[in-house]
Amino acid sequence: MGRTGVMSRQGSVIAGVVWMFIVSVLLFWLPVFGSLIAGIVGGKKAGGVGPAALAVFVPALVLAVFSFVFTTTVTGLPLVGAVAGAGGFVFAAVGVGPLLVGAIIGGALA
């Protein structure tokens, strides 16, 4: 509850990311609509269009950085890590389209 006694409807980018991940995993068998539904749910939990868009792109960037660091550590070659990081980002970015559209819709509904 807020100071005025009215329930405040603040969202969280972390909550949006978590909900998008959970719903995406549960609806993996629906190729486009699963990501769209996950985006809508996560966008509503994020609390707005801006936080919803951030909740979509943060996991893709985290995956790319993790892939770069892990591959560089295992191989000891930063160039191979850079290529793997770029590949990880592209791999994560492929599924972002319907998720982003859903997040924008869900963020607008919040």
Short structural description:
Helices cover 78% and strands 0% of the residues. It has 110 residues and is mainly α.
Can you put this structure into words, describing what you see?
There is one protein chain. This protein has 110 residues and is an all-alpha fold. The chain has one domain. The chain is built from five helices and no strands. It starts with 12 loop residues before the first helix and ends with a helix.
* Overall body shape: elongated
How many DSSP E strands? 0
Task: List segments where confidence is low: pLDDT < 50 over at least 5 consecutive residues.
Answer: none
Element string (H = helix, E = strand): HHHHH
Structurally, how many domains make up the residues?
1
Radius of gyration: 16 Å
Protein topology:
Elements: H1 13-26, H2 33-46, H3 49-75, H4 78-94, H5 96-109
How would you describe this structure in keywords?
110 residues, mainly alpha, 5 helices, 78% helix
